[in-house]
Amino acid sequence: YFSKEEKFTLELGCGHGDYSIELAALHPDRNFIGIDIKAARIYNGAIRVNDLNLKNTAFIISRAEKIGEIFPQNSIEEIYIPFPDPHIKRKSEPRRLVSKEFLKIYNSILIKNGKVHLKTDSEMIFNYTLKTINDFGCNIFNFSEDLYANSGEIISNEVITKYEQFYLKEGRTIKYVCFGFWTIDYF
Question: Which of 51, 92, 124, 133 has minimal CB crowding within 10 Å?
Fold first, then answer.
């Protein structure tokens, strides 16, 4: 599909594809793939991609659990998880996009030194993420409990989604964490 097989970035739970589309416009040398289970949302994103004539953006209708079957090992450079559903009930924990089960999938498809970016307004999902990635032995590259508190130290705000703009207007605090997996080189 892509004209260049360069670096690949996934946006999980992409909705209308805000991250995929905005990042694709900012980084034409990279390829972006938005993944969501709801076709109507992706359709709206695909219309925008066509209108903007972006050749480095695609969408896949799929459950996030299937990405390990869709993408080969070591093929993804970055994964963005913007404002995931927290799945608050304990029995729904495996469905959280930062559960141990998902971390295993991410670890298999990310390239060496690949990164996962998570933004959320949920204190619960942020704390759960920090605990889970710590328990999993991940490397935290950067994080903020209030992404926009210090305007001089903005960590990751290349893209601000419609939902994020809404949350900010409501006065919600946006949290961010960027992490990866330790890699071991065998000689």
Answer: 51
